[in-house]
């Protein structure tokens, strides 16, 4: 994503690394809901976590600061890992049979 690789680690941190040099750009160790998969929407990096205490996090792509996190009542007993998708100006998130839509801000 524009020369930056984003990855989650085993301690629930999120890393931004220069894809060419391997140099760390930032490390976010705030509450990222265990983000392991990512979507980049310009200034915002959306992360989706695992099923145990998982959810969605919006992270500032330039600084690594968490803007907000969200989860639903299925988080502790969900059917699997969280999935996210972008559709126009909407962020879609699911952790089971329901799909939730919210503004992608």
Largest sheet: 4 strands, antiparallel
What class, by secondary structure content? mainly beta
Q: Which strands sit side by side, in order, in the main sheet?
A: 4-5-6-7
- The number of distinct β-strands equals 10
Under the CATH scheme, which architecture would be assigned? Beta Barrel
Cα Rg: 13 Å
- Residue windows where pLDDT falls under 50 for at least 5 positions: none
Looking at the structure, the CATH topology is Lipocalin
Number of domains: 1
What is the residue-averaged pLDDT? 83
Percent range for β-strand residues: over 45%
Termini separation comes to 18 Å
How would you describe what is shown here?
By secondary structure, the chain is mainly β. It has a single domain (4-103), classed as Beta Barrel (Lipocalin), CATH 2.40.128. Helices cover 0% and strands 48% of the residues. It has no helices and ten strands. The chain has strands at residues 4-8, 14-18, 24-28, 37-41, 44-48, 56-60, 66-70, 83-87, 90-94, 99-103. The strands form three sheets. A four-stranded antiparallel beta sheet has the order 4-5-6-7, with no helix packed on it. The chain has a three-stranded antiparallel beta sheet with strand order 1-2-3, with no helix packed on it. The protein has a three-stranded antiparallel beta sheet with strand order 8-9-10, with no helix packed on it. It starts with a strand and ends with a strand.
């Amino acid at each position: 994503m524009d020369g930056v690789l984003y990855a989650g680690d085993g301690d629930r941190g999120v890393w931004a690394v220069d894809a060419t040099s391997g140099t760390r750009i930032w490390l976010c160790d705030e509450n990222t809901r265990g983000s392991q998969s990512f979507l980049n929407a310009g200034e915002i990096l959306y992360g989706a976590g695992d099923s145990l205490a998982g959810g969605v996090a919006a992270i500032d792509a330039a600084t690594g600061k968490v803007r907000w996190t969200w989860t639903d009542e299925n988080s502790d007993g969900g059917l699997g890992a969280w999935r996210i998708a972008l559709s126009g100006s909407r962020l879609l998130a699911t952790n089971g049979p329901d799909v939730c839509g919210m503004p992608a801000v």
